[in-house]
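Q: Got a minute? One more chain.
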Amino acid sequence: MKRSSQLFHVLGRALALGAIALGVATANAQTPAQVSAYAANLKAVAEAQRQQALFWAAANNWPVDVTLPNGVHGSIRRVEGGRPIYMYTMDRDQAKTISAASVWPGGGLGLSLTGAGITLGVWDGGVADSIPEFGSRLTVKDGGPVGGHPTNTASIAACTGLLADARGMAYTANIWAYDWNNDLAEMTTGASQGVRVSNHSYGTNVGWIFGARGDGKWVWFGDPAISTTTESSLGYYNNEARAWDDMLYNSPNFMACASAGNSRNEGPDTQPIDHWVFENGAWASSQVVRDLDGVGPGYDSLNLEKSAKNLVVVGATRKNPAGYTGPSSVVMSSFSCWGPTDDGRIKPDVVAPGVNIVVAEPGGGYSAGDGTSFSSPAVCGATAQLLGHFATTLNRTPRGATMRGLLIHTADEAGANPGPDYAFGWGQINVATAADVISKAAFNPNVIAERRLNSGGTINIPIQIGAGSALKVTICWTDPAGNVVAETLNDRTPKLVNDLDLRVINTDTNTTYLPWKLDPNNPANAATRGDNIVDNVEQVLVNNPTSGNYNIRVSHKGTGLRPSGSQDVTVIISAPIAGDLERVTVDPGSVIGGVEQAIGTVYMFTSRSTPTTVTLFTNNTAAVSVPRTVVIPANQTQASFTIGTRSVQNAVTASIVAGNNSGSVSSELTVTPVNMSGALVLSTNEIIGGLGLTGTVNLSSPAPAGGATIYLSSSRPTIAKPTRNWVLIPAGQTSITFNITTKSLVEPVDLDITARRGSVSTSAPLRVVRANLMSVTTSAAVITGGTSLTGTVTLDGPAPSGGATVLLSSSNTAVARVAARVVIPSGRTSANFTISTTRPGVATPATISATRFGVTQTRTITVNP
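A: Always. Here it is, folded:
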């Protein structure tokens, strides 16, 4: 025991030194050498913590890995205050609820956001299984065991959707899978290699956990030295939270999503109850009445690292397939953890559905489950969708703070009161709204402005707006890691390093609008407006603003920004700008490519006294063409333009986008191919092998310029097939005929001839039969005995390979004799044989018979004396 204690002390010292080294790394890592050194430091700290925990577990007879009675998997991570810290694992309707499905191809918004080209990382208690739902998109990056929970979470983020209800948000994104050991070091390396967003559906043990010691009793993980009745670590900014902040600060183009946890209201149904508690250096039985939060029912239930400033913490709501219809349509789950953090910051950041979520399982099966474990990967996958849109629309990689701010800025209002709260955070994410903001930024760079604030400086963004429903401005920044102080109960000291301030000023009236803020001492109270000194995201909302001139101002408190005299900050603006575009329509909504055109019409809310030039573009130039611009005349609110189309092989959807400096609007046009109409017609549906036939295909309308290619195939090409595998129907024509060859057979064969154009195909059945015996003839009907004559057997089609054997016989061999058989050569339809005769005393008849496959033909001759 003494040796274990000494080693525990040495490891603790190494861990402390590692934490000090980690704390120095505050400048954004950029070069590969810096990234490598920083990741190595994180790995060393994590491995020291793990080794320390393993020796503690051995010395105290505690398990390294556990499975709780509720099926949750846990693994020991480190030791704090003499207590073990474990890491625990925490559908289509889900996608509909947060409007992720509406930005999929054909989703109705003219977008095709599937996460294509984006790599997301999934860290969990093991790695995802390589099931068909992931295909070649899944790469296992370390040697963790395959697990159900990591497969579940990865499927929510990026499942292909072989089962439609299990389709992930970013269903074509690449997935890098890791287990949770050395997560921060691996995230640093992954971010430098192109991972843009990650998911972490796990968290450390806090408060009440049932069965943690394997004996069916409750265990209290709070520290009685700080509070005998309340879990002080809930909302506490500890070294783990600080490490997350530091890692994210050093990977500025990376965003991490984490589950808020499921322990709100967790604990015995009644108290007092006999339970375990760690005090005075040992586990002891206790019946003290204890409380998770201490500030209000359900509040202050976030554990440890979830208090990190730069981490996107996700709570869980119920699904609503009908979509958002107002705050009351966002319904909180019974388990999702609530804020505040000890210093009063708004956590969780956002919410997403996490109840009754369909997920993929190892081996290829499916199940449904609940938990913030399932809401967090939905946000991760949705972010991958938006990252793809950001790349194709704005042609740049956004900051992690930009994506975090965008999710918050566009979240749907939830909860009983306007503004953020400690249960729903800033609201339920809305992918469609976020995608629309990105689209608008293509026409107005101030919509998403990534700026740098210098010490003593101010960022000013002047805008002119028209009267409208709301003016919303959000700023978000990745703040340097904060200071960790000794754990106490609800220390309200702010953890911000750089306290930025957002103000929106109506410069016509000199009216200043302040951001939202919450009161951690009264967590159920509605948000108010004021000076927010704790959050590294601030938002100003002005309902029904008057038209006029406004200034967006970002400044900071104090004399200098740490650590290098500047702070990157993203400003996101949604405003009713004067001359706003209202909508663009397309009529008709579906046309035949290369044959038909459509008419687009762009509308403004109000007219202008001068002409308005609107820029037009499409995301599918292979199928659609639009003019570069259209001009809305002075004092008019609309203008129309022609949309040209090109021939396509499959139906495609094209976005028609119109924009100016007020933003953009879009609509969809479906371009279909010139398809075949009716069935494929064959000249016959049964043919003797070796003979030829024809087929005819018809189009629904005349072939476009360049013609219409029809692809031809056979289900049994060795028996029958078109002479070419494609034919071209000339422009302006509606049909074409093609030739089909067949092979001679011994036995009948059934097959299909198929014609295909794009995704439309039609087939016709064809039966290829063998050639049967048609007749037997002779060169004469009457012959004088003693001479010979010639007989001929004939088939109704060509003989097959190897020839066709015909059996011969005579009814009167005394006067007429034939060979036992004759073979018709391959490809021929007939063959001759000899009939020899003898002279009879009187005229005598003889019947010559030929038989093949049960078919007999006869010929009677008369032999004279």
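A: Confidence is low (pLDDT under 50) at residues 1-27.
Q: Perfect, thanks.
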